Amino acid sequence: MSAGPAGSVSSSTSSPTKLPRRIVLTGFMGAGKSTVGRLLAARLHWPFLDIDSLITAEHGLSVARIFAHHGEEHFRRLEAETVARVLDPVQQDPAYQHNQAIVALGGGAIETEAVRHLLFDEPASVPGTVTIFLTAPLPELLARCHATPLSTQNTCGDEDEETPVRPLLTAPEPPEDRLGRRLPHYRRAHLTVDTSGVPPEGVVDRIMNWLHEWVQGRPQESHHRDKKTR
After folding, report:
1. Angle at 84 between CA 81 and CA 90, to 5 degrees
2. What are the pLDDT digits (tens) for 158-182?
3. Which of 134, 156, 157, 181 has the fewest C-beta atoms lying within 10 Å of its C-beta?
């Protein structure tokens, strides 16, 4: 579906019985998941849970340091455990038992099968959870990270990133290959928003418009995609 005019969900309609319990943002590095997540949470007056930040706070190490000291496989295991404690009612940490919340996944979380089960696979998927894929052309994503092939420092366009260094930018595997491997999983999201050339506030407006349609009871299959957002 097309995004249409920017919309909002009024306080009278944003009840737990109407809106999803969890709105999960996914996408490649530089997509703006943390920035959009914070803005969307503020707009809805919901808590915002950033998975990378939760891992950093719990383990006292940045994502980059976990990668450097323990490797990607170890980080993915910590990541999957954290996602389960945020999303899975059976494993949920009492600290994260909010009625509703915005959740930002790390870009690679979608590669872990256990995470995909929670997001997409019936009957394991978590009731009341919708996933939104933020996308843009890869050159724009990397430009947002202020990255070059030789750089080791970047910001990736996400405000207040816990980790200024993106370890996968210096990994041997080209970002094109990594993105290509993740795309089939990203594309399973309930909504895809093209963020190319769109400020974060505009992305939030488009998500709010889609949520307004959700509240109005549009058929689920009619708002599976929002590929045209310009």
Report:
1. 125
2. 443 444 456 666 667 788 999 999 9
3. 181
DSSP alpha helix (H) spans, 51-190: 51-59, 63-70, 72-87, 113-120, 138-144, 175-186
- DSSP string for residues in 2-48: ---S-----TTT--TTTS-SEEEEE-STTS-HHHHHHHHHHHHT--E
pLDDT of residue 198: 94
Helix (H) or strand (E) holding 95: none
* pLDDT of residue 221 exceeding 90: no
Candidates 51, 171, 30, 27; CA nearest to 111 is: 27
The closest of 193, 184, 186, 191 to 221, measured between CA atoms, is 191
Question: Which fold, 22-223?
Answer: Rossmann fold (3.40.50)
Rounded to an integer, the average pLDDT of 67-94 is 89
The answer to whether 173 and 114 have CB atoms below 8 angstroms apart is no
Gap between the Cα atoms of 116 and 48, Å rounded: 20
The residue ranges of every structural domain in the chain are 22-223
